[in-house]
Amino acid sequence: MTALLRYHAALLLRSQRWLPPFLLYAAFLAISIQAGQPVLDSLGYSAAALLPVAAWLARICVTGEPDAARGCVAAAVGPGRAQVACLLVALAGAAALGTVTTLLVTLLSDPVASDHRTRVPLGPACGAGLLAALACALLGTAVGALTSRPLLRSPGRAVLALLLAALLSLVATGSPAQAVVQGLVTGSQKGTVPLPLLPLAAAALVTAAALALSGALASRRSP
Amino acid sequence: MRPDLCLQNAGRRYGLRGPWVLRGVDLTVAPGRLIRVEGGNGSGKSTLLRLLAGIDAPSEGRMTGRPRTAYVPERFPPALPFTAAGYLTHLGRVHGLTRTAAARAAGEWLERLGAAAYADTPMARLSKGSSQKVAVAQALLGEPELLVLDEAWTGLDTEARAELERAVAERTAAGGSVVFVDHDPRRLAGLSDATYAVRDGSLVERASAEPVPSGPQVIVDAQGPPDGRLPAEVHASVSSAEETAPGRYRLTVPAPHSDVVLRALLTARPPWHVASVVQREDPTGSRR
């Protein structure tokens, strides 16, 4: 499995297809987040924006490998493992991006609530931001896995479904991503730091199920 | 001993209600067997090979006994962001080799296939033939128990074709199974243990009564100990063996097997003396 993850990571990094989502994320953060803003608000923004980026990364990882090359790897390790490995690489990439962003945003923001008076401790706020980013990275990977090969094979429909699913999982009540972002925003209004463990667990469960489904279908719905 | 790979009443169709590409396929691939699959364009040969390689699962029926498998696709894309050696090292590790073993095997196979000069060339700049050599190398470097070749010879130059035939002989001599499709009837001629044809979505074994043309042969003259008997590996690989004097044998060997036979003779305990190796003059190549 390690060799497989390494291969897919190298494929992602060297293909440079990670650059557009990365740049889009950076541009969004540059516009929406400024130094000196309340820390929990900024962390909420950065976590929310990570979800579509993670979904895009997952799509890049799944579609980046040419069919014939995928066949060679699938013969060696089984198509299910190959599929799950490339989604795990996407998840790791999104989680790493979320971690770096959370740390940067924490450093740049003011340790205050939305009213700019109540103090918010930076350490716990950073922790809550990391958990929220991880939940959004997980859910984004699930969205990407469920809206690309082998579940949806026509690129036009897949991209539309990806955008719609990413939007829904950010705004629909009951979605773990909506819950963590809402938690950070409410926490900023009240001046308390949330601990979004429950939504994180839910996001992990949803993602595990999505990856398992994608892996199980990899050998049934191809090419 | 690993179990046979078995397809039982297997079928495959694309989509939930698509037409059946293959149906009712029963096939057993035992260790050490060389199996040829024939059929017209679009008959479902590639679908069968993808099932055997484990890339696709059968839509109905069962498949049991998955060995360590490697697959060579019919067209290999150069659109990978690696150098040839870099890609092969990654694939070697995916096949279970260590980093150093993978790098060494990558170098060896590129050398054997005559592509050592392209080891550090980005895959995107390789010619069609050279990228096919990379595809062949990735399948061979892990010494797989099952090798599935989907027209792997297409696009290779003459030397590389012969090298791949020898590599196939090595795999079967080492107890691996090989399943291949090729449009050239002379490919590994006379060496296949079984030939199957895909017709109208089903698999039929071609009667072995049909005359099988044999390929080029090599005559090996070897001297063993006076009461020496031929090593079992040699026995399995020769077309005929004739004892000319006590312990002295005149072996007729299919050309792709010649290296396997010589290696077995020279590494036997006690080793045999190889007196001469000549190519049999048989321009028609039809005599057995």
UniProtKB/TrEMBL annotation, chain A:
Keywords (A to Z) from UniProt: Membrane, Transmembrane, Transmembrane helix
Transmembrane segments: 82-108, 128-146, 158-177, 197-218
Name of the protein described by the UniProt record: Integral membrane protein
Species the sequence originates in: Streptomyces viridochromogenes (strain DSM 40736 / JCM 4977 / BCRC 1201 / Tue 494)
Upper lineage: Bacteria, Bacillati, Actinomycetota, Actinomycetes, Kitasatosporales
From TrEMBL, chain B:
Presence of the UniProt keyword DNA-binding in the record: no
Keyword set, alphabetical order: ATP-binding, Nucleotide-binding, Transport
Keyword Oxidoreductase listed: no
Residues spanning the membrane: none
SUPFAM superfamilies: P-loop containing nucleoside triphosphate hydrolases
GO MF annotations, alphabetized: ATP binding; ATP hydrolysis activity
InterPro entries associated with the record: AAA+_ATPase, ABC_transporter-like_ATP-bd, ABC_Transporter_VariousFunc, P-loop_NTPase
Domain of life: Bacteria
Pfam families associated with the record: ABC_tran
UniProt domain ABC transporter: residue ranges: 5-225
Name of the protein this chain belongs to: Heme ABC exporter, ATP-binding protein CcmA
Species this chain originates from: Streptomyces viridochromogenes (strain DSM 40736 / JCM 4977 / BCRC 1201 / Tue 494)
Organism classification: Bacteria, Bacillati, Actinomycetota, Actinomycetes, Kitasatosporales
